[in-house]
Amino acid sequence: MNTAIRVRDLRRTFGTVVAVDGVDLDVIDGEFLTLLGPSGSGKTTVLRMIAGFERPDAGTIELDGVDVTSAPPYARDVNTVFQDYALFPHMSVLENIEYGLRVKKVPKAERRARAMEALEGVRLADLGDRAPSQLSGGQRQRVALARALVNRPKVLLLDEPLGALDLKLREQMQVELKAIQRDVGITFVFVTHDQDEALTMSDRIAVFNEGRIVQLGTPAEIYEFPASEFVAGFVGTSNLLRDETARAVLGNAGTWSIRPEKIRISAAGTPASSGERAVAGTVREVIYVGMSTRMVIDLAPGGTLVAVEQNSGRHADERLSMRGEHVTLLWNTEHEYSVN
Amino acid sequence: MHAKRLLKVAAVSASAMLLVAACGGSSGSSSSGSSAAASGGAAAETPGGSAFAGPVGMGEGQVNILAWPGYVEDGSTDPAVDWVTPFEKETGCQVNLKTFGTSDEAVKLMQGGGWDVVSASGDATLRLIYGDLVQPVNTDLVPSYADIFPDLKMQKFNSVDGVAYGIPHGRGANLIMWNTDKVTTPLDSWAVTFDPKSPYKGAVTAYDSPIFIADAAVYLMATQPELGIKDPYALDKTQFDAAIALLTQQKELIGEYWSDYTKATQAFESGSTAVGTSWQVIANLAEADGGHVAAAKAKEGATGWSDTWMIAKDSANINCAYKWVDYIASPSVNAQVAEWFGEAPSNAKACDLTTDKNFCTSYHAGDTEYWKDVYYWNTPTTACLDGRTDVQCIPYSEWGTAWTALRS
Amino acid sequence: MTTTTATHRGFWYRHPGLRQGGLLTAPMAWLVVVYLGSLAALFLTAFYQVDDFTGQVVRSFSLKNFQNLFTTSAYYQSVFRTISIAVLVTVLCLVIAVPLAFFMARVAPRSWRPVMVALVLTPLWASYLVKVYAWRSMLQPDTGVIAWFLKPLGLGGPGYGYLGIVITLTYLWLPYMILPVYAGLTRLPDSMLDASADLGAHSGRTFRSIVIPLIFPSVVAGSIFTFSLSLGDYITAQIVGGKVTMLGNVVQQTYVTNLPFAAAVATLPVIIILLYLLAVRKTGALENV
Known about the structure:
The structure holds three protein chains of three kinds.
Chain A: E1 3-14, E2 17-28, E3 32-36, H1 43-51, E4 58-63, E5 66-67, E6 78-81, H2 93-103, H3 108-121, H4 137-149, E7 155-159, H5 167-184, E8 187-192, H6 195-201, E9 204-209, E10 212-217, H7 219-224, H8 229-234, E11 240-242, H9 243-250, E12 255-257, E13 264-267, E14 276-288, E15 292-299, E16 304-310, H10 316-320, E17 326-332, E18 337-338
Parallel strand pairs in A: 3-8, 3-9, 6-7, 7-8
Antiparallel strand pairs in A: 1-2, 1-4, 4-5, 9-10, 11-12, 12-18, 13-17, 14-15, 14-17, 15-16
Helix pairs in contact in A: 2-3, 2-4, 3-4
Chain B: H1 2-24, H2 33-41, E1 62-67, H3 84-91, E2 94-99, H4 103-112, E3 117-120, H5 122-130, E4 134-135, E5 159-160, E6 163-164, E7 167-179, H6 191-194, E8 204-207, H7 213-223, H8 237-251, E9 254-258, H9 261-270, E10 275-279, H10 280-288, E11 293-296, E12 302-312, H11 318-329, H12 331-341, E13 344-345, H13 359-362, H14 368-372, E14 374-376, H15 396-407
Parallel strand pairs in B: 1-2, 1-3, 8-9, 8-10, 12-14
Antiparallel strand pairs in B: 3-12, 4-12, 5-6, 7-10, 7-11, 7-12, 7-13
Chain C: H1 2-14, H2 16-45, E1 49-50, E2 57-58, H3 64-71, H4 73-107, H5 113-125, H6 128-139, H7 145-150, H8 162-187, H9 190-198, H10 203-232, H11 235-240, H12 247-254, H13 259-282
Antiparallel strand pairs in C: 1-2
C-alpha cells in the first residue's frame, strides 16, 4: 500500500489560538479518509495546509513521496471541493469545469471532451451552458466535484462539501460521493463534523480534538471502541458510567461505555443469561424517532443509560406508555468497554 | 495681509462661479424675446424710463446690492474693514449683499431681478442699460457726484445721449507686466506679447475674457493705423477679424491665460509667466510678496476698467439706493474702498483721506494725461460705439463666441 | 384616542400603495421636476437662439448651435480633447486604484483597513480649489516639485497644459475609483481565489481570469465617476491647463453671452455619458452594481 499523503508534526497557530498542534497522518492511496471533529478542532486547517492555502508553522507535508510543504497550491497535484463550492459566477458550468484544464493549456478539443465527460459523470450533461446561479444547491455541489475531478488529481480534498444541503439531499449525495470515489479510484480526504456522514462514507476516520488527532481507525473501530471519553461522546450517543456508579453497576471503577443499541429492555426481574448482565431500572423518558425508540432509563444502583430499540415488534404506542415502568436492562458484557 | 485678502476674494469669486455654472443650464427660459425686441427698438430713446425726481426721503429699511467682491465690506472679511455698518446706522437701510465674479455673471443676476443697486464695469453697463435693467440717475440727488473726477463723468459706458446712468466708483488700467529675472530691460510696448518672434514664447500671459479682444485692437490702433480703429470696442468685420488673427497668432506665445488675479500674481512671482497683461493691483501684490516684477503702461495705450454704481430699473428701495450710491462715492468711503481693493478712486477728495498718502499718485487717480489713452471696458454693440453709421460693428455676443472658439 | 390611532395604523396597513406613494412623493417630485426638468430645459435651450443686440434668448427652433459645434474645428477638437482627457484620467485611475485597492482589501492585515480607507478619503476633506492650487504650484515649470524631481533625470516638468490637467484630475478623482474597487474586492470570497489556485492558476492568472472579471462591475462604477467628473470639469483646466481648455470651459465662457450655444455644448457630455452607460450595459456590468 502506497502512502498518498504523509503529514508529520504539523503545527499552525492563528494569533494566540493553536489550531493544529502536532498532527501526524498517513493517507493511503485510494482510500476515503474522513477528518472528523467539532468546529475549531483543526481538521479544516489540516486540509487547507494539504491543499496549500495555509502555510504550516512547522512540520512537513509529502504528496506521493515529494515534500510539498512550501509549494504553492497550483503546484500541488490535489484538488479541492469547497464548502461554498466557490464556483466562478462569471463562467458557465462548462467553463468552470474547463478552467483547470485551460490553465494547464490542455488543447481545446480534449478539454471540451474531458469536461463533458466529467459533467456526465455527475449527471449534469444538459446544464453545461447554465450559469452557476441558475443551479440548485445539489447541482452546484456536483459541478464543484466535476470541476475538481476533471483534473484527475492524485488526491481530492473535500471541505464539508455537504454542509449546505438539506438532509435528504445530503444522504443521497453521501451515497453518490462514495460511489464516485470507488469508480475513479482517487484518494479522498473528506472533512466533516457530522459523525453519521463520517461513519457512512469513510474507509478510515481521523477524529480531531483541540488540534490533534485523538483516534484513527475504521468506522467500526471508532464506533465500537472509542479510545477516549471524547470520542465516545462525539461519535454516537454518549452512554457512560463513571466511578462510583460504574463500580455499583459493573463492579469496576473507571469510565465505561455501552452503545445504546447493545442494550435490551425486558420486563422487571428477567434474569441474565450466561455472559449477560442484568440491571434493574425505571423508564424516565420515551422518545419516538420513527425507525426506533430511544428510552432514557435511571438505573437502580445509580446512573442513567440510553437504550435504543427497533420499532419492529410491538406497536410504538405501547412503548410510549412505558414511562415510569420498572424494567430490567440486559447486555452482553463484551459490549462494556473502558474509555479511560 | 494684502495677499490674504485677495486670496479670499479669489476664493469667493471662484465658488460663486461654480454655483452659477451649476445653475446656469436650466435658467435659460427666464429672459423673454419680446422684451428684447422692445428694448432694441427703444434704444434711440432713453432706456429704463426716467430718473427718480426726488427728493430722497426716508429709507425703506433695506437695500439689495450686487457688487464685485471687496466693494461692500461689513467687517466679516476683516474686522477693521467695515463701511457697511456705519451706513446702516446712519440711514437705517439694512444692506443685503451678493457678490459676483464676472461682468457676465452680474448681467445674468440683474436679469433675475430683485436688486436695487449694482457695481457694474464698463463691459456690463451698456448691456444693463439697453437690457432695460437699470434706470437713469438723477445726479442732483447725489451730492458726492460733484467731486468725481470730470474725465469719469458722462462717458460712453455710463451715459446715453447725455443722460447719466450711474455714479463712477473707481478705475484701473491694464498694464504690461514682467518678471524682472526673465525680462532684464524695462518694457514699454505690447510688442513682446504679440510679435511671433517674441523671445518669451511659452511664457506670455493674457486675460481670459472676450473683452481681451479690445487689447489686441488697441495694439492694432498703433501698429496698423490703416485699419482705422478709433475705439477698440467698435470693431467692424475687417477690424474684428484682424484682431482675432492677431490673437490667434499670439496664442502660440501664450503659456497660460488668467482670469483670477491670485493665479496671475503667483505666475508672475514664480516666473512661469515672464510677461503679459496685468493690473496695478497684481503688480503691487507680487512686489509685496517679494516677487521680482515691474509693470508699466504700454506706449500703444491700454484697456482699463471704470466701475459704475447703477440703480435697478425696478428698484423697490429707491431712497436707500440713492443713499447708498451717494455714500459709497463720498470721499472717505471711496478712499477706503479704493485702498482695500487696489484701484484709483473716483472721488477727487478721496485722495486726501487715504491712509497711504502716496496712494493716489501710485494709482494715477487724478492724472488726466495718464488716463487719456486708457480705453475703459465697454460693451460692443451692433451700432458702432464710435459713431460710425455706414457699417455694423461686431456685437459682444459674437466677441464671446469668437473668444471661446479661439480658446477651444 | 387609542381607537383613532389604531384605525390610522390600520388604514396605512391596508393601503400599502398609498403608504409607499406618500413616502416617495417628495423625492420623486424632486427627481422629476428639478433633475429631469432641468435636463429637459437644457436640451430645449440648446435649440434656441440669442438676440445679438441684447444678448437675450430668442425662442425660435434651430439646429444652428449644433451645426456650429460640429463644423467649427476649434469646438469639435475641444470635444475630442475633453473625451481623451476623461479616458486618460479613467485609465490612470484604474492603473493606480486596482493594485492599491487589492493591497488594501486582500494583502494588508484586516485591522489596517479602516485606517487605509480613511487615508484614501482624506483628500476628499480638503477643498477642491485648495487641491488644484496645490497642484498648480507642484506642476510649476522649472521650480515646481515635479520639475525638481525630474531634473536629475534630464526631464522637464509637465508644466501647465494637457498633461497637467490629466495629472491633477487623476489625483482629484482617484478616491472615487479606489472606493468601489476596494468594496468589490472585499466582497470577493476568499474561496474564489483559493479555488483558482487550487485548479493550477498562479497569482497572475488568477488576477486576470477571476479577480478582474469579478470586480468588473465595481471598476465600471468607479469609471463612471472618474469619466463623468472629468468630462464636466473646467476649473482644473483654468488653473493648471495653461492655454488648454475643455468643454466645461466653453460652457463657462459662453453661458451668459450665448446661453443656447452653452446649452448645446453642455448637452454633449450628457450624451457621451449616456452612450458610455449604454456600452457598459451591453457588458452586463450594471446588473450587479
